[in-house]
């Protein structure tokens, strides 16, 4: 059953990821800086995931020590370094440019999947990748921004995209040994510890203790937009090609854009709507291919 609906699991994860900006803005009202916001969200998610495993199946907390370096990669590189590089890109360029550079991730995933997992590059997959990427560019309005971007900024943005792609690839490797929930939990434990050290444990605790009234919504928001989507995405990777899952995940850009329209009265132009159509078209192509294979 889960195999048949795995593309839907990815779409559900993107709908939740798309709301991440809402939570980031809310946690930001706690007078937290970029690193503290990331640390708070990751800490909440890590605690939640550990509690879930303690209640549901404690055996899933067992891993082999020799595999721990893989979790260091997913936690430090895929989450922490990705967050830092993405934040730096948004500081140097506008958000639309940062988002597009982040979503070069499917290109990296496709290349690594061909080399590591021996996936075949089909015309449908190539067309879907092109549609989703160009669609993302239209959705965020990069063609109308008229902004010149320095080579250093592009490089940092590509680092964010590469780090983002590593979770999909390494997650696929780890799924051969561990349950998806185990992978997500240890990834977030490592990421939470690393981000807390970067943000400063005492400073982060001070932010939380100064705004206890905002903590309940911060907890709910972090679980819904960080922990839960990673659980769904990792479960989908069990049954899907990593490249296809990564391309479908670009729907996050569409979801975030639609949330902006509904919650912040942002307007969609004809190019934005065209971009949404292209991303949806890419998903339909991959969904039809997936159903045909299964």
- The best one-word shape is globular
> Over the alpha carbons, how many angstroms does the gyration radius reach?
18 Å
List SSEs in N-to-C order.
Answer: HHHHHHHHHHHHHHH
Structural class: mainly alpha
Oligomer: single chain
State the share of residues found in helices, binned by percent: over 70%
What profile does the largest beta sheet have?
A: none
Q: Give the count of helical stretches.
A: 15
C-alpha end-to-end distance: 11 Å
Task: Tell me the β content.
Answer: under 5%
Secondary structure: number of strands: 0
Unreliable stretches (pLDDT < 50, length at least 5) are: none
Mean pLDDT: 89
The domain count comes to 1
Question: What are the SSEs and their pairings?
Answer:
Elements: H1 6-17, H2 20-28, H3 34-56, H4 68-92, H5 95-102, H6 105-116, H7 123-139, H8 142-145, H9 151-174, H10 180-199, H11 201-210, H12 215-237, H13 242-248, H14 251-264, H15 270-293
Helix pairs in contact: 1-12, 1-14, 2-12, 3-10, 3-12, 4-9, 4-10, 5-9, 6-9, 6-13, 7-13, 7-15, 9-13, 10-12
Transmembrane segments: 37-56, 68-86, 98-117, 124-145, 151-171, 183-203, 215-233, 245-264, 270-291
Family: Belongs to the EamA transporter family.
InterPro entries: EamA_dom, EmrE-like
